[in-house]
Amino acid sequence: MIEEVVAFLRTEVKPRAEVIDRDRDALRSTLNDFASQGWMALKRPAEYGGPAMPEPDFRRFQQECARASGTFAFLQTQHQSAGSMLAKSDNTDLKQDWIPKMGNGEKFLGIGFSQLRRPGTPLVQATPEGSGYQISGQVPWVTGYSYYGHYLLGATLPSGEALFAIVPLEPSESTVVSEPMQLSAMETAQTVTVTYDNFHLSNDQVAFIRPSGWIQNNDLINISLQAHFAMGNALAGLDVLEERFQERKQPFVKDAHELLLAEWNVLNTALAEAPVSADEQTSSERLKLRAWAIELMGRCAHAAITASSGASNSIHHRAQRIWREALVFTVSAQTSAVMEATLQRLTRKI
Predict the structure, then answer these.
(1) N or C, which terminus of the chain has less Cβ within 10 Å?
(2) In terms of domains, do 149 and 183 share one?
(3) What is the pLDDT of residue 225?
(4) What local confidence, expressed as pLDDT, does residue 277 receive?
(5) CATH code of residue 67
(6) Looking at the structure, do residues 176 and 189 belong to the same domain, yes or no?
(7) Residues in a beta bridge with 191
């Protein structure tokens, strides 16, 4: 299956990437075309229809998706992540209602729980009441408005535990959805802020409750896994370098491409071999790999800009888009530890 998915990304998504970057209808059409292949829940368990894609194949998919279009990669990963998380729920009825319909886009589901990373007073609070909860507060980032009708909300209970539940992504008497944000990259994916004022959440929509500090532990596990989007963006930059060489036959462009690609291969191997755990030693090692991926992505995007000369200053140029997408993949799922490791990498002595 991975070869079919990659072929679709290279032939159907990559050639439309500039249009997808600017046109919501083009992005919607691409999302629907991808979903029609049954690929929107690639890690879905076999008992719910599969295909339960192996981890190495899924990481390659993430790379190729970001290589083809950062905007498409960013939008679809919200749904893929929600599906993977929902599969771990103990709410059998909720899973049966959602997961079988998530592969072909019959049901779309986003995510909104990055606020759980923020210290201090919880931004979104869930107060037990009767047969459910009252939700109040503000979810600062929810991507996929108008594409996804629901999303997996993260809210903090009085105990400090994290509650995750499926809620509508639409305004109501107790819900205010902001206008889509004006962003330098991936704006067509439509990211909004959602504010709740005593929104009633019924128990049957609760997917699971996790202990206090769950998201910090989960971030430790996902440190290096998030690097694959940066690696895909780096490949996009290298593709531009290769094309510039084929056009102009300048040997220094070829040299740059070969050196960066060789480094990419070394790092990709290291990421594939990195252990996945939350202990301090492996976390430190994987933080360094994540920071390396971010820095290498930046250099590949910068190289694409450089080799494209003044034309890259056009908002419609591919190198310009890749450069802006690198910004997003630098800060996506960023923790203080990732920020520190990235800055240390960027300021290391030669």
Answers:
(1) C
(2) yes
(3) 84
(4) 66
(5) 1.10.540.10
(6) yes
(7) 143
Domain count, the chain: 3
Q: What is the dihedral of CA 156, 158, 160, 165, to 10 degrees?
A: -30
Q: Are residues 39 and 77 in the same domain?
A: yes
- Give 275-296 pLDDT, tens digit per residue: 876 666 678 999 999 999 999 9
As a whole number of angstroms, the distance between CA 296 and CA 152 comes to 32
Q: Which two tokens stand for residue 3?
A: 């070869």
- Which contiguous run of DSSP H or E holds residue 152? strand 150-156
Statement to judge: residues 93 and 118 lie in one domain: no
Give residue 265's domain range. 215-346
Same domain, 187 and 221: no
Same domain? For 311 and 226 the reply is yes
Retrieve residue 147's tokens: 């594409």
Domain C-terminal end among 150, 178, 212: 212
Res 164: pLDDT: 98
Whether residue 350 is predicted with pLDDT greater than 80 in this model: the reply is no
Q: pLDDT, tens digit, for every residue of 47-67?
A: 999 999 999 999 999 999 999
According to DSSP, residue 1 is labeled -
Angle, in degrees to the nearest 10, between helices 70-86 and 227-248:
160
> In this predicted model, what pLDDT tens digit does every residue of 101-136 receive, in sequence order?
999 999 999 999 999 999 899 999 999 999 999 999
Which are the contacts of 12, defined by CB distance < 8 A and separation ≥ 6?
A: 30, 33
User: Is the domain of 177 the same as that of 281?
Assistant: no
| Alpha helices (runs of H) in the chain, residue ranges in sequence order | 2-8, 17-22, 24-36, 55-68, 70-86, 92-98, 214-221, 227-248, 251-273, 280-308, 318-331, 336-346
Tell me if the pTM is above 0.85. yes
Q: Alpha carbon of 73 to those of 109, 209, 228: distances in Å?
A: 15, 28, 11
CATH number at residue 258: 1.20.140.10
Mean pLDDT of 207-224: 88
CB 59 within 8 A of CB 225: yes
Would you say the C-alpha torsion 295, 184, 40, 319 has a positive or negative sign? negative
